[in-house]
Write a structure and sequence with these properties.
Elements (H helix, E strand, L loop, with lengths): L5 E10 L8 E11 L2 E11 L8 H10 L16 E5 L2 H10 L3 H5 L7 H14 L3
Antiparallel strand pairs: 1-2, 2-3, 3-4
Helix pairs in contact: 2-4
C-alpha cells in the first residue's frame, strides 16, 4: 500500500480554443508524492457535442484533436493515464503550475493561454517519466 506524504488534486476544462465546438474534456489530475517521486494520474471525461453531424471519422479525429496530449510523442495518448516523475526543483515547479487554476496561471503564462501552458506542462512531464 502506498502511503502518501502529500496528495494534491485539481480539475479543469480543456476546451476547443478555436471555438468551433462546445465539446470539452474535464481533466482530473491527482499528484501523489512518494519516495522522492511524483506520481501523476489523469482522468478524462469528454462532454461531447457532435460538431460534424453524421460524420463518424471527422468526429473521431476532432475528439482526438482536442485531447490534452494531442501533438505529444505519446503514441496512444487517448488512453494515457499518467506517469511517475523524479521529484526535483524542476518537476516540483511544473507540478505547482499545473495545479494552479486558470485565473492564477493566466497571470504568469505570458502570451500563451493558461490552457496551452497546462498542456505544455503535462506533455513535458510525460517526457520526464522515470
Amino acid at each position: 500500500m502506498i502511503q502518501n506524504a502529500l496528495t494534491r488534486t485539481n480539475c479543469f476544462k480543456f476546451i476547443d480554443e478555436s471555438g468551433s465546438s462546445l465539446s470539452y474534456y474535464n481533466v482530473d489530475i491527482t499528484v501523489n508524492e512518494y519516495n522522492c517521486k511524483w506520481i501523476l494520474w489523469y482522468m478524462y471525461i469528454i462532454l461531447w457535442y457532435l460538431p460534424f453531424a453524421n460524420k463518424i471519422n471527422e468526429n473521431e479525429e476532432y475528439k482526438q484533436s482536442i485531447h490534452p496530449f494531442f501533438g505529444s510523442l505519446i503514441e496512444d495518448y487517448m488512453t494515457y493515464e499518467g506517469d511517475t516523475v523524479i521529484k526535483n526543483t524542476l518537476s516540483s515547479s511544473m507540478i505547482d503550475y499545473l495545479l494552479m487554476d486558470y485565473v492564477e496561471l493566466e497571470k504568469v503564462s505570458g502570451s500563451s493561454s493558461a490552457q496551452k501552458y497546462k498542456q505544455s506542462i503535462m506533455i513535458s512531464l510525460s517526457y520526464l517519466s522515470d
